[in-house]
Write a structure and sequence with these properties.
Layout lengths: L2 E5 L2 E4 L4 E8 L7 E7 L6 E6 L6 E3 L7 E6 L4 E6 L8 E8 L12 E2 L3 E6 L1
Parallel strand pairs: 2-11
Antiparallel strand pairs: 1-3, 3-8, 4-5, 4-9, 5-6, 7-8, 9-10, 9-11
Length: 123
């Protein structure tokens, strides 16, 4: 079992930055692909970014490419999502997820999910 806890959300003005953290317990994240997803009110959960278990392969949604970056700290068993140049349309609850099979853009592939952290971007 893997337990995931997100943190780092908050209220920020458009153009600002936030760094989300996803801390894991129970298993080492170095054996899991990780994904970030988000869900805005009234909308479906959507893919944001994913990284392979090795950290060598990353993939981003077109809407965040060039602005968001996944990184990791294996010593802390934590993954991060650095979000720059934030826009009001980035407002959502952000979730991290772990997948034993590797990186994926599809939420259905992930076995473990955090509780989410709210990101609000004001215009």
């Amino acid at each position: 079992q893997v337990q995931l806890v997100e943190s780092g959300g908050g209220l920020v003005q458009a153009g600002g930055s936030l760094r989300l953290s996803c801390a894991a317990s129970g298993r080492t994240l170095s054996m899991y692909g990780m994904g970030w997803f988000r869900q805005a009110p009234g909308k479906e959960r959507e893919f944001v970014a994913t990284v392979s278990w090795s950290g060598r392969n990353t993939y981003y949604a077109d809407s965040v490419k060039g602005r968001f970056t996944i990184s990791r700290d294996n010593a802390k068993n934590t993954r991060y999502l650095q979000m720059n140049s934030l826009k009001p349309e980035d407002t959502a609850v952000y979730y991290c997820a772990a997948n034993r099979a590797g990186s994926s853009r599809f939420a259905s592939d992930y076995e473990y999910w955090g509780q989410g952290t709210q990101v609000t971007v004001s215009s």
